[in-house]
Fold this sequence. Notes:
By secondary structure, the chain is an alpha+beta fold. It has 15 helices and 29 strands.
Amino acid sequence: MFGLGKKHEAAKQVFASRIEDYALIGDLHTAALVSRNGSIDWLCWPHFASPACFASLLGTEDNGYWRLAPASDQAVSTRRYRDTTLILETTFTTPEGEVCVTDFMPPRGEFSHLIRIVKGVRGTVKMHMDLKLRFDYGLTVPWVTQYDRKLRAVAGPNMIVLRTSCSSGVTAELEGKDLATVSDFTLHEGQEVSFCMTYAPSNAEDPGKTNAQDELEDTIAYWTRWAQQNTYQGPYKDVVARSLATLKALTYKPTGGMVAAVTTSLPEQIGGERNWDYRFCWLRDTAFTLLALILAGYTEEATNWRLWLLRAIAGSPDQIQALYGINGERNLIEWEASWLSGYEGSRPVRIGNAAIEQFQLDVYGEVAIALNHIPDALDDLRTPATALQANIVDRVCDVWQQPDEGIWEVRGGRKHFVYSKAMAWVALDRAVKHYERYDGKGDVKRWRKNRDLLHKQICSKGFNKKLNSFTLSYGSDTIDAACLQMLHIGFLPPDDPRMIGTVEAVEKYLLRDGLVQRYDTSKFKDGLSGSEGTFLACSFWLASALHIIGRRDDARQLYERLLSLRNDVGLLSEEYDTKAKRMLGNFPQALSHIALVHTAFTLNDQWKPGPFVELN
């Protein structure tokens, strides 16, 4: 429940809503964030990595938004997704009556639409629509013309057309005011107004009219059919279904790639500099994503994701990057949008991601896991997986002894990160076990020799006997939550004292109010100032690890604590501030939802760790 009081409206002039106050709608090409107060504060059009046309999330209202809500300052809102769909329904209650605003983006056809339908439920409610379109991340004011209930906004290559449609007895005229567009109208019970916003290239003809109700029915049918494929039958079925739908919404349909989040620069610490652009596809997410999708019965999505992966990494193995664009682009130059004040003053606002320049050894292991999970019969013949996999494993033999920047993409210099070494071991181990898949390509004797040598080195240099735990890097006394994944990949048996000790060390040194930090930022200098919140994916990893080592009650208790942190429509960001009790980081975060789904399968004993080596 959410009140739209005067204090909130005043604050909205400076800052966006809390991260957890947003819901997600999308059309499988891009996505928008809708706040509890009926304001769309973030939308990149025409695709996830395009410049935003609503960017008040990272600045002020002058950077673009679209609010549709009662005019009353006493309105209170509640919201939900309709059943298993990505259709958002927000009910506003005022002293005079009640309305329901339905927000959705139909799965894209020829054009991309954002549709808002407001319907009178009871009584009489005065409504106010307030629109500021600002292209280029809130910088560019478009040229706006309007006639016959149609508004056209054009700037550079971009055009947006807004049309309204009203039921009998209702008039919702569009009026220009202070470089914005407003509309005031009144709804009685049963009356309805729809707003359909459409994106098109500025050199194209205006998109034709769209029937909002027809689009709504088609969108309901699409998401309902999709949800019916879910094979998970455990005790958290509704929770898993919502996270799977969220992951689907983060998928770019033309290529099968999945973005890590739909936002950039939502801070890991309010007011800090740990602000990154997550609107790209990380290789390390592939293994977890593919496993989650396959476990839940979504073979088509998993296959498309794998094909994206094969196309993205095709070429020389020594040029594999940690992340790529949604089409497999390699050049994601990082720059700063200096005109944006940042979310609650958190600067800089970064566009692009300099992590493409880093060497991250662990991605070879994640790619190996991903490529071994999908049926070969569904391969992309343009990029033969067998030869590519063999070349990648040969490359691992060449580079595993080098330091890297690691899973956390640190900017404080390369180290011999234990997690990175463990994932390089996975690449070698799976290659040896599945050599027959490579059509005889690759030197399996060399792979086996390097695998065994690397395993021995990790156990001798990456394990701290005093802490009884694997650590962040060779010779380190800092604990890294990523080492929990060594249980999941089967580096050692679950009952190995070193694995149990690592789980206990994470609990002892990284728990903050019951949730897990990635590492202690006060002990490990990662090249950035400030600290960060607890990391939700790592917290899910701990829940899975506890279950694997036999502490099932503790695992379920932590899992249900994590589920309680989801917002009212089931979404999670990257991190959580346990003191301020609010979400941090980009939103919604794919890795958090992937970990949620994977942990549900683990707790339900529908998934177990991969192959492990015997105690040595």
